[in-house]
# Entry
Amino acid sequence: MEELLKMMRNRVTILKKALAKAEKEAEKARGEWPEGCLRVSYGNKRVRFYHVTNPEDTTGEYIKKDRQKLAKMLAYKDYNTRFLKQAGLELSRLETLISQLENENGDLAYQNLSAYRKNMISPYIMTNELYAKEWLEKKYRSNEYMPEHKVYETKKGDMVRSKSEAIIADILFDLEIPYHYEKSITLRTGEVRYPDFTLLKVRTREEIFLEHFGLWDDEDYRRNSMRKLAEYRNNRIFPGKNLLFTFETTDTPLDIKGIKAMFRELFL
# Structure
């Protein structure tokens, strides 16, 4: 419900800006727009425009080619009038509906319960917040390879293998983006892989994988990384869709600002 309300609020913002623009243009053109309206006729593979000034006249006066500016002004006037009416009606209805749904929706039956009651039931509608909570709490198979290399602690309490991974994990934690570290996935071949991070896109409930390439200027490392990306692609894990990656080299440090911007754009 919260996601629906967010979409509706965004639509309200768009409508208000557009209505303000339309009202401003209508006021500015009030003395310039011609009286009447535009009639468009289609026939014999030609389009003809007519200027209708009398409501009882269903034909109007033919607008010649050298007066096309008049047709455009009438078309814009008609559009402006219809937009102000229909968008205004939509805005009014949306604001009323938002007000009602904020106080009357099925999710509130669960959200307004005490913590004790919530622990005793399963809601009929899984909210995004509860889905994320259960996703985070669900146990998963993690990478057991060389656990002694996991020496960097994150804000969430995970132990990771590099300082850069710790920075990325802490960015995710601060932005409240749910993640698992080195959670196993099984490929079509039956082989198991461990992406550095598995992120939850809460609003769509999609899992997005994130790989950090920390030694991109090392030739062997880069070759292995390219094989990994090809393997993901063969398993329908595509960069930009359900796979993200970050990188750094000796001369190019981790782009913390850019990573934060990417996460905000894609997840928040």
User: Anything to note?
Assistant: The first helix runs from residue 2 to 28. The domain at 139-267 is CATH 3.40.1350 (Trna Endonuclease; Chain: A, domain 1). DSSP finds eight helices and eleven strands in the chain. The mean pLDDT is 94.
